[in-house]
Amino acid sequence: MKLEGLTVLDLSLFLPGPAATQLMADHGARVIKIENPRAPEPTRSARSFPWTQGGETVMLRNTQRGKESCALDLKTEAGKAALRALILRADVLVEAFRPGVMERLGFGYETCRELNPGLVYCSISAFGQSGPWRDRPAHDTATVAASGALSLSLPPENPEAGPAIVGVAMSDMLSSNLALAGIMMALFRREQTGEGDYLDISMHESVLAASPNILGPVFGGAQAPDTRRERSHGGNAMLNIYRTADDRFLALGGGEHKFVTNLFEGLGHPEFIAAVSGPAGEAHWPAITFLRNAFKQRSLNEWEQWFEGRDICWSPVLTLLEAWESEQVAARGMRLKDADGNDHMGNPLHFQREPWALKARIPEVGEHTEDILSGLDLTAAERGEILGAIADICPNKG
Question: Distance between CA 315 and CA 318 in Å, rounded?
């Protein structure tokens, strides 16, 4: 597989870092999850993440599979000695603490670089390692709100209702994917220079960087978007959401002239074609009103039959259950079952020659600690101190 031979130390929690390192583990990397034995990975807790399957939370199973768990208390000298020994052998380190925490623990980038000049060190935080917002506490929703993107998630039929929470963890997953891309860039460059690098990923900036198609009013007009006049936010008849007779929804998703023509000729109203083929905004409003009324005349199933065979960019608005039970998801291997019947989210990086492999097992807290320590340059006393400290907390530590 693509990443065989790569060793990754994952000190991150929750979603952005773990999602990135799981993609790496799926493609062959050895990912060692460093867990605080007294405050382990929060997604292990069914109290906080109540949906479980096979004795594990669904989120844990889909962010931590195929990794090793090493329980280290980084506030002890023995724990620090073990992490230093791991850094000497690692290719990548991923952490997602608040800015400054790793320095206080004695593992800031410069310290780690002295130990291992080839280390690629990635920090993921809410607002990055610099700037006036650096120390603000924030998770996904707050960083999306600060990016301006949340202000645009308004219902097209009733924008006065205000923003709605985005259905996926946008900044978590965008920053996760940027972290993976940046790490791969740094590893490629290391092949030429022998030097690693420090990668500073901001969840906030990951959303800003996903905004080139919506920045026209901001950069071109120094004004906030009016969603009723914007192509991507409800001002375009062909990029909109419509209610059906059975209170389901369908989405139109493409405004090319051929789609416009096929839709309105099919509905028997070609008079809207010229206006809807033009810029979004007020000229589209009559067509939007017509479509809202038209789509309410039939059920979603009836509209699916009507759209069949017509070259129009559209989709039913599926529930999450419908989406994950669809034939497309099954055909592409994005939902798999392990030998025990537990569901796993597939890996979306589909290489033809070296495909990913499902390593379904979820490590218990500290499960691999003893095995990992046995391969490090530590004294017997240091090993004994680490294992003794976690004996009651992590009984399966070897």
Answer: 8
Q: Indicate whether 313 pLDDT > 90.
A: yes
Instruction: Render 225-247 in DSSP notation, one character per residue.
Output: --GGG-TTTTSSTTEEEEE-TTS
DSSP 102: H
- Max CA separation in the chain (angstroms): 84
pLDDT tens-digit readout, 277-296: 999 999 999 999 999 999 99
Residues 172, 197, 247, 340: which is the catalytic one? Answer: 172
Token pair in block for residue 380: 């017997």
3-state secondary structure of 265: helix
Q: Using alpha carbons only, how large is the chain's radius of gyration in Å? A: 25
CATH of 7-209+331-390, one of 3.40.190.10, 3.40.50.10540, 3.40.1190.20, 3.90.70.10: 3.40.50.10540
Name the helix (H) or strand (E) containing 336: strand 335-337
Residue 176 neighbours by CB under 8 Å, 6+ apart: 15, 16, 17, 19, 20, 124
User: Would you place residue 356 in the very low, low, confident or very high pLDDT band (cuts 50, 70, 90)?
Assistant: very high
Query: Mind listing the pLDDT tens digit for each residue in 329-338?
Result: 999 999 999 9
* Annotated catalytic residue 140: no
CATH: 3.40.50.2000, 3.30.1540.10, 3.40.605.10, 2.30.120.10. Which one for 239-312? 3.30.1540.10
